[in-house]
Design a protein that fits this description.
Order of helices and strands: EEEHEEHHHEHEHEEEHEEHHHHHEHEHE
Radius of gyration: 21 Å
CATH superfamily of the largest domain: AICAR transformylase, duplication domain
CATH topology of the largest domain: Cytidine Deaminase, domain 2
Largest sheet: 6 strands, mixed
Number of strands: 15
Shape: globular
Number of helices: 14
Structural class: alpha/beta
Length: about 400
């Protein structure tokens, strides 16, 4: 390890010189095992590592996240995958999957369009199963506490040998005060060391006071994910994984809609109409992902028009109608929703309900809390006020 690392450039190629270093003179907590990570790569790596480390601590399960532009596209713990999830995540040909591989398949598969070219963070040693999964995806790099020798060799083969592989010291503890500069002015604050656990879910303010244990885990996953998502942010979670993340919007309802739309796409991809799509042989993985997204959108004719569909499908699929989609979406239930700050109006709850949300965790504190609670009560939702805000900038 060394005290500093020179980078090719900063956020943009014109921003030079660029480096990371330890201001206190200590050694950097990372070792670059392969490649040459850039400024944004390292922002993703350090944020992603904190996220998976906290998920592992809070749930006791291995965790993975897929980061893009300093926000997670997906985050998950290592719950086993159903046959349907294996198929929509395109890992059904890999045989038995390790818990860590399951976690990354979930994190990558939540929003495959956003995960394209991701930076990966793993809570535990990267095993061969996970490395083989990563090998065939378009990704910029990975950070983990360690790598098995065979997994390391597999990852080194990516991107013609230039794939970024970072090993982080799992025992590294940052200083309690953090600083950064903006426009030549130094900002200083205490690190956000808030411990997110089930105690934050004790203040249930709705008529429905029941949040099952597995849903508490999902709500905790949503809150930890939000802790490392650019604000404003909202996160939908189901069965141990984020299924829709809305980040960086100026309006909370826009976050809720964006994340809800992503959750809807995740669920629609599991519909028989999508599972039965017969793609042409040797279609590229990104092209297949994009085709599915277009197929279930209002622009479906872009891939179904005569003379066009033959580029993607062996057999022309029928239109997945709005009526069919609405019926399928109604089957998605018991979804959990977290918000990094209070919901100002009940319209967020109305939108969340359309994506199957039953359980909500948010700080509370709006002058319209009563309206938000009444909206939850209308749909028999259970909502906890955590009393804590999770802004991240």
């Amino acid at each position: 390890m060394a005290n500093e690392m020179l980078l090719k450039y900063g956020c943009n190629p014109n921003q030079k010189p660029s480096k990371i270093f330890m201001a206190d003179g200590s050694e950097l907590p990372i070792t670059v095992l392969n490649g040459k990570p850039g400024y944004i790569n390292l922002l993703d790596a350090f944020n992603g590592w904190q996220l998976v480390k906290e998920l592992k601590k809070a749930t006791g399960m291995v965790a993975a996240t897929s980061f893009k532009h300093v926000s997670p596209a997906g985050a998950a713990v290592g719950k086993p995958l159903s046959d349907t999830l294996k198929k929509i995540y395109f890992v059904d040909d890999l045989g038995e999957l390790s818990p860590l591989a399951c976690a990354y398949a979930r994190a990558r598969g939540a929003d495959r369009m956003s995960s394209y070219g991701d930076f990966i963070a793993l809570s535990d040693e990267c095993d061969v199963c996970t490395a083989k999964m990563i090998q065939r995806e378009v990704s910029d790099g990975i950070i983990a506490p360690s790598y098995s020798p065979e997994a390391l060799e597999i990852l080194k083969s990516k991107r013609k040998g230039s794939y970024n592989i970072i090993q982080i010291d799992p025992d590294y503890t940052p200083a309690p005060i953090e600083t950064k500069q903006v426009y030549g002015v130094t900002f200083e604050q205490g690190r956000n060391e808030l411990d997110i656990n089930e105690e934050l879910l004790n203040n249930i303010v709705t008529e429905n006071k029941t949040i099952p244990d597995d849903k508490k885990i999902d709500l905790i996953i949503s809150l930890i994910t939000l802790k490392y998502t650019q604000s404003n942010s909202v996160c939908y979670v189901k069965d141990g994984q984020a299924i829709g993340i809305g980040a960086g919007q100026q309006s909370r309802i826009h976050c809720t809609r964006l994340a809800g739309n992503k959750a809807d796409i995740w669920w629609l991809r599991q519909a028989p109409q999508v599972l039965d799509l017969q793609f042409v042989d040797n279609i590229r993985r990104p092209d297949r992902d994009n085709t599915i997204d277009v197929y279930i959108s209002d622009e479906h004719d872009d891939v179904l028009a005569e003379g066009v569909w033959q580029n993607y499908f062996k057999v022309k699929p029928p239109v997945f109608t709005k009526e069919e989609q609405k019926a399928w979406l109604a089957e998605n239930t018991d979804v959990c929703l977290g918000s990094d700050a209070f919901f100002p109006f009940g319209d967020n709850i109305e939108r969340a309900r359309k994506s199957g949300v039953k359980y909500v965790a948010q700080p509370g504190g709006s002058i319209r809390d009563d309206h938000v609670i009444d909206t939850c009560n209308k749909y028999d939702m259970a909502m906890a006020f955590t009393g804590i805000r999770l802004f991240h900038h």
